[in-house]
């Protein structure tokens, strides 16, 4: 398979070493902008080292786990870099977790300290959630917690200005580290190597509990050097980063932004009005929105002006070709739309479209692997390599691959196979131009009257209908056909279209057995960090509560 024409990257230092170096050479330059504040490289490094000393005082040593539970905010950054600076690995928990998911991941991850916040209680209030998950916390010594729910957990630290409740506030935790010698922290950090785990990110479970992907310092840097090389990210440029920090699409870009000395722009909760003001104020150069749910509220916003926003050079959006074409038309003429294929197990990027590829290729393909990685298409049953143009399972290997699933050797061995190849569970093929074509999940194939039907094919057509913003197709059991397609559809703002009109639009465009039997309209989607959870749609359909 062809590869991207970008420099071969070799990681040479850990992520906290990157921060220390950039704090020396770009001390006063901004690293992050939020709606309420900005933080420089120097200030971030100083705050991270204060957290590192506090973690050390709390008994954190090289290889221990520190968990975070917060949305994208300025407090998350020094906690993350401080934990790494203390030699720990960060368990970046999904800020949308509810009781069952949080209880499982806190216990399974063996996290010794959890850092959360009360600053955003109007959107998500973590205090009552944690009281529910940790009912035996009350009355215990704040920094020596003992709880059956998470036996390794010793403290829950509350950032923010609101009441901390039974949990110690961040300032009290930080004070405990003031007596720690910085040299002791530095000595612990030197025990960590670039192939050690930097972050554990739990993938969303569908039929089982979430699995914790271990990502090394090397993997995150290797993977995300692809993005910065593709867009030629400059030291004085900025990247809009709405993807959650607990996701590879958040933690990954912030790593390469750090390496390049650039700046990120983010906000705790997605608000297009505030966001457009941030993009214009900081003259953002790269929009790393990732998914249509984040891209189009910006591109179609009345304040997004193609002339005034010519400082935007690129946008990353993953979607079908028709949607990509529409996004490119909405961007300033000088801006380039990009696409990729990625997954948590690949640290976020497996292939990426070249910036100089024709729009048709960038719209319909997922691009090429970087020089340090390999991608192949195999028969999922025999593992025989497929010829170009023949669909099979996408597999990859390289330094961006995850190390293992934490405490799950069976799942690890089923996913990382001989010669380091990683099974993705995704269908694809190599197109005539050598680029990867993504064809959906292998399990996302409907069996309609004996015919194989890819849900992604139906979704791609539905999303060419002007009134449709997003479509997701699942199979519904049928006595005669075995299974028939059902479409969940979100209309574009201010537009109306009904089931009969959508089905009529499919006539003559899709084979008869591919046309959805029912159209169900939604305004909100059941989401993991970034993707629609189709198993939740199936549950809604089965329960009859899909409305």
List keywords for this structure.
547 residues, alpha/beta, Rossmann fold, GMP Synthetase, Chain A, domain 3, seven-stranded mixed sheet, six-stranded mixed sheet, 17 helices, globular, ANL_N_sf, ligase, Acyl--CoA ligase, ligase activity
Describe this structure in words.
InterPro entries: AMP-bd_C (IPR025110), AMP-bd_C_sf (IPR045851), AMP-binding_CS (IPR020845), AMP-dep_synth/lig_dom (IPR000873), ANL_N_sf (IPR042099). GO terms for molecular function: ligase activity. Belongs to the ATP-dependent AMP-binding enzyme family. It is globular, with a radius of gyration of 23 Å. The chain is built from 17 helices and 24 strands. The strands form six sheets. A seven-stranded mixed sheet has the order 2-1-10-9-11-12-13, sandwiched between helices. It has a six-stranded mixed sheet with strand order 6-5-3-4-7-8. The protein has a four-stranded antiparallel sheet with strand order 16-17-18-19. Among the domains are: 187 residues, Rossmann fold, CATH 3.40.50; 95 residues, ANL, C-terminal domain (GMP Synthetase, Chain A, domain 3), CATH 3.30.300. The model has no long low-confidence stretch (mean pLDDT 93). It is of the alpha/beta class. The longest helix is centred in the first third of the chain and has 17 residues. Helix 1 packs across helix 2, helix 2 crosses helix 3 and helix 8 packs across helix 9.
């Amino acid at each position: 398979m062809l590869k991207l024409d970008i420099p071969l990257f070799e990681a040479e230092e850990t992520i906290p070493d990157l921060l220390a170096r950039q704090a020396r050479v770009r001390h006063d330059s901004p690293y992050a902008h939020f709606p309420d504040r900005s933080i420089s490289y120097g200030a971030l490094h100083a705050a991270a080292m204060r957290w590192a000393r506090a973690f050390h005082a709390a008994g954190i040593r090289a290889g221990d786990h520190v968990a975070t539970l917060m949305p994208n905010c300025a407090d998350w950054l020094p906690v993350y870099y401080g934990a790494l600076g203390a030699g720990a690995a960060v368990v970046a928990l999904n800020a949308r977790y509810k009781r069952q998911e949080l209880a499982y991941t806190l216990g399974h991850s063996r996290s010794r300290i959890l850092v959360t916040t009360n600053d955003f209680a109007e959107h998500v209030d973590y205090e009552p959630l944690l009281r529910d998950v940790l009912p035996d916390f009350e009355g215990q010594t704040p920094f020596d917690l003992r709880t059956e729910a998470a036996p390794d957990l010793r403290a829950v630290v509350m950032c923010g200005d609101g009441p901390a409740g039974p949990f110690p506030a961040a300032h009290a935790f930080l004070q405990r580290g003031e007596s720690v010698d910085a040299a002791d922290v530095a000595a612990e950090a030197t025990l960590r190597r670039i192939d050690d785990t930097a972050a554990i990110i739990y993938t969303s479970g569908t039929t089982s509990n979430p699995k914790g992907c271990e990502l090394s310092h090397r993997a995150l840097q290797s993977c995300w050097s692809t993005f910065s090389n593709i867009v030629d990210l400059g030291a004085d440029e900025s990247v809009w980063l709405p993807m959650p920090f607990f996701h590879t699409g958040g933690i990954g870009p912030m790593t390469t932004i750090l390496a390049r000395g650039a700046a990120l722009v983010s906000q705790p909760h997605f608000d297009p009005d505030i966001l457009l003001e941030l993009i214009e104020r900081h003259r953002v150069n790269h929009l790393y929105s990732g998914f249509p749910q984040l891209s189009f509220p910006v591109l179609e916003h009345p304040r997004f002006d193609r002339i005034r926003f010519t400082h935007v050079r690129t946008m990353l959006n993953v979607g079908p070709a028709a949607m990509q074409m529409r996004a490119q038309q909405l961007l300033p003429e000088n801006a380039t739309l990009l696409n990729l294929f990625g997954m948590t197990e690949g640290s976020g990027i497996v292939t990426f479209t070249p910036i100089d590829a024709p729009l048709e290729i960038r719209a319909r393909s997922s691009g090429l692997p970087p020089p340090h990685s390999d991608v192949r298409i195999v028969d999922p049953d025999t593992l025989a390599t497929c010829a170009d143009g023949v669909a099979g399972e996408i597999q990859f290997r390289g330094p961006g691959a995850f190390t293992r699933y934490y405490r799950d050797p069976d799942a690890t061995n089923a996913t990382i196979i001989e010669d380091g190849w990683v099974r993705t569970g995704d269908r694809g093929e190599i197109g005539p131009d050598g680029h990867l074509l993504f064809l959906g999940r292998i399990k996302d194939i409907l069996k309609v009257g004996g015919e194989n039907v890819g849900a992604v094919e139906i979704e791609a057509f539905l999303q060419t209908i002007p009134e449709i913003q997003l479509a997701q197709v699942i199979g519904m059991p049928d006595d005669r056909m075995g299974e028939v397609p059902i479409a969940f559809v979100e209309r574009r703002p201010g537009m109306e279209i009904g089931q009969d009109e959508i089905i009529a639009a499919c006539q003559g465009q899709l084979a008869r057995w591919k046309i959805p039997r029912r159209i169900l309209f939604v305004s909100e989607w059941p989401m993991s960090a970034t993707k629609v959870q189709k198993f939740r749609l199936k549950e809604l359909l089965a329960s009859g509560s899909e409305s």
